Amino acid sequence: MSKEKRPRIALEMTPHDWLLEGLAAAAFLFLLVVPAVYYADLPDTIPQHFNARGEADDFGPKVRLWLLPGLGVLIYAKMTILNRYPHIFNYTVPITADNAERQYRMATQLIRVLKVFVMSLFAYLIWGTIQIATSRAETLSEWLLWFMLGANSAILVWYLVRAYRKK
User: 40 lies in a domain?
Assistant: First the structure.
């Protein structure tokens, strides 16, 4: 069935959906508020990039601290809007009238989980940058890169397994 002919279903949010939205919103607010609170305390030059060991390897003006929250606003808004139109997503199984609600629900939950993941990651990066810039820490966690790769892969595998099982 083509995307244009897929059923359009208004999904009611479950308590799990509300929890995920709440967690994403909390991380999003942290991402916006923390830089505003600490901005005046930052030196003029702050870390801009980190290597795989979490060490700062590029520095720049503190105004660039706002790039990550700005990107976070765009991603948060786009993921929130996208989740209103699950019939336009790409799916690994054909969407029929019988499986549309199940597949749409799983796909919208995937977007919510990814939104929590991305907003939490951005919040951690902002916090870590501020901690390093103010000499409260020397590096980000050495495990950050591995956590990002592992968590992102686990989220996608979790979704794909569920999607195939519930065709």
Answer: yes
Q: What is the pTM of this model?
A: 0.91
| Beta carbons within 8 Å of 18's beta carbon, 6+ residues apart | none
* Number of CB atoms found within 10 A of residue 2's CB: 6
Are 122 and 68 spatial neighbours (Cβ–Cβ below 8 Å)?
yes
Structural domain contains residue 8? no
In a domain, 5, yes or no: no
> Which is nearest to 95 in space by CA: 164, 4, 7?
7
Going from the first residue of the chain to its last (167 residues), give the mean pLDDT of each consecutive group of 10, the final group possibly shorter: 83 97 98 97 96 94 97 98 96 91 95 96 96 96 88 91 80
Whether residue 72 lies inside any domain: the answer is yes
Best CA proximity match to 73, nearest among 112, 114, 28: 28
Separation in Å, CA 124 to CA 44, 51, 87, 93, 167: 21, 15, 33, 35, 36
Full residue range of the structural domain in which residue 160 is found: 13-165
Calpha distance 94→139 (Å, rounded): 46
**Total domains in the fold of the chain:** 1
Backbone angles phi, psi at 15, to 5 degrees: -55, -35
